[in-house]
Amino acid sequence: MLVPPTLFLVESRESYRCFREERSMAAPKKKLTVLIADDQTLFREGIKDLLENEKTISVVGEAADGQEAVRLAKKLKPNVILMDIKLPHMDGVTATRMVRTECPDTNVLILSSFEDEAHVMESIQAGANGYLSKMLPASELVNALKTFANEGVMIPQPVMGKLIQGLRQMSSSTAEATLVALTKTEIKVLALLGRGMSNKEIAAELGCSVKTIKNHLNSIFQKLDVSNRTEAVVKGIEIGLISAEDSR
Fold first, then answer.
1. CATH 3.40.50.2300 is the classification of domain 8-162
2. pTM over 0.70
3. What topology is assigned to 173-247 in CATH?
4. Going by C-beta distance under 8 Å and a sequence separation of 6 or more, which residues neighbour residue 141?
5. pLDDT one-digit tens code per residue, 20-33
6. Considering only CA atoms, which of 200, 186, 177 is closest in space to residue 242?
7. What is the pLDDT of residues 88-106, one digit of tens each?
């Protein structure tokens, strides 16, 4: 299974909660460059008009099908592609897989009207960095892109539940060695990550410093053989260290 470096899932204003990936980088000095890939001209133009009103975002291109999206990704090297999942000539999932392989520095956020477990899982397996609903209010789409660029990830609780179910169905569930390797505190930290807590919130919950939490995270990353918080949560779900109760 291909685990994406950053997972960013947003359903609606009411249903998402923040799962922040702490980053040391400051606000980006350069504009976030975006490529819009959707077969509906009116929808593309609407998103373009919306984003071009933002000083920190620049729409560098538009694609009407999956093949064009891959071609423009190679040519323009955008920071982010807003990719429709249902595209002609080459579907969004296949295009995502090609972009993530051939343009690893380009992030792909699936923008779809489908919110079922199968489509979410298929997109994540293809390497998508996130999954956004087309039902998202315009202002929330802008906020989602800004958060993705500056802070980290948002995982809505309903989608977290779908991920848990999907990943467990795929998993061979070999958690024994990992359970032995992780300390009780590290397992608690991992569970709190699954709830969408930031380092500061986890520190307050466990009664310790943010620096201590960062040390725990570094240890967890090493033991789980992952490179960031998102991969740690996904790995924790796969091997049964994070349950549905942990994500509530």
1. yes
2. no
3. Arc Repressor Mutant, subunit A (1.10.10)
4. 47, 50, 132
5. 444 444 444 589 99
6. 186
7. 999 999 999 999 999 988 9
